[in-house]
Write a structure and sequence with these properties.
Blueprint lengths: L1 E14 L2 E14 L3 E5 L6 H8 L7 E6 L2 E2 L5 H11 E4 L11 H11 L4 H14 L15 H13 L5 E5 L7 H16 L4 E4 L3 H4 L4 E6 L2 E7 L1 H6 L1
This protein binds adenosine-5'-diphosphate (2 copies).
Length: 233
């Protein structure tokens, strides 16, 4: 089953009298339990494509089916609902709420999903355990290291059991040792059956994925299985 089905996706921005064509016909299928790195030079359209994949933006043309839902024709409110149900986001800047504890941050998506307080706490605790942060659930972001904050953000992305995890430069703010720890967590998430798409411009980080898709000037330049990773398991 395709989690992501993109058919000739177009995206342009109006710049005064001109249209800037940023995505020029992107077609791509990503199946359940794939682990994909999206790479490409600055300006090639990675963020634009991730915004579309994450239902934060809609394409100017083409078709996007996310887990069986045709999202290319959806209105904003419907899109927001799908986004909450189907997608877990991980950002470079963590995007945690500073006044909430780790546990409360992880539980936020469950509030929108209408889950009871007790169940929210149980699920959030379990997710924090899963990312190796079970002990620090009462800490606030400013009492946690960058790597620990990113673990909280990953736990939050997972808590709704989404069909797709999207990560935009998740190690961009971390030192190399911490980056490896975070990539190990993504490896575990993938191993436990999740579908992961991450944007990175670092080859070392992309090597953790099983498939590497490269964008250039708004089109897919190459799409290859990662031989190294595919060979070891
Ligand atoms: P990447 O993430 O690969 O660096 P982006 O998707 O951010 O690429 O940008 C691709 C191109 O689209 C760039 O030329 C960028 O300036 C332009 N762009 C991105 N977002 C917008 C926007 N909201 N309005 C106008 N132009 C944009
Ligand atoms: P990234 O580092 O992830 O590629 P950018 O710095 O390119 O992000 O862009 C940051 C934000 O600004 C994005 O949401 C993008 O859509 C928007 N953006 C990028 N280029 C332009 C532009 N030329 N005009 C308006 N918005 C832009």
């Amino acid at each position: 089953d395709a989690v992501i089905h993109l058919e000739n996706i177009l995206k342009s921005y109006h710049m005064g009298n001109n249209d800037l064509q940023v995505l020029k016909g992107v077609s791509l299928n990503i199946f359940k339990n794939e682990y994909v790195a999206l790479m490409g030079p600055s300006g090639s359209g990675k963020s634009t494509l991730m915004n579309i994949l994450g239902c934060l933006d809609t394409p100017s043309g083409g078709k996007y089916v996310l887990s069986g839902h045709d999202v290319s024709t959806m209105e904003d409110n419907e899109l927001a609902r799908i986004r909450n149900q189907e997608i877990g986001f991980v950002f470079q800047q963590f995007n945690l709420m500073p006044r909430l504890t780790a546990l409360e941050n992880v539980a936020v998506p469950l509030i929108y999903a209408g889950v009871s307080k007790k169940e929210r706490e149980d699920k959030a605790r379990a997710m924090l355990e899963k990312v190796g942060l079970g002990e620090r659930y009462k800490h606030r972001p400013n009492e946690l290291s960058g790597g620990q904050c990113q673990r909280v953000a990953i736990a939050r992305a997972l808590v709704n059991d989404p069909s797709l995890i999207l990560a935009d430069e998740p190690t961009g703010n971390l030192d190399s040792k911490t980056s490896v720890e975070i990539m190990d967590i993504f490896g575990n998430i993938h191993a436990s059956g999740n579908t992961v798409v991450l944007v990175t411009h670092e080859e070392d980080i992309a090597e953790h994925a099983r498939r590497i898709v490269r964008l250039r000037d708004g089109v897919i330049e190459s799409d290859k299985l990662n031989e190294i990773k595919s060979a070891v398991s």
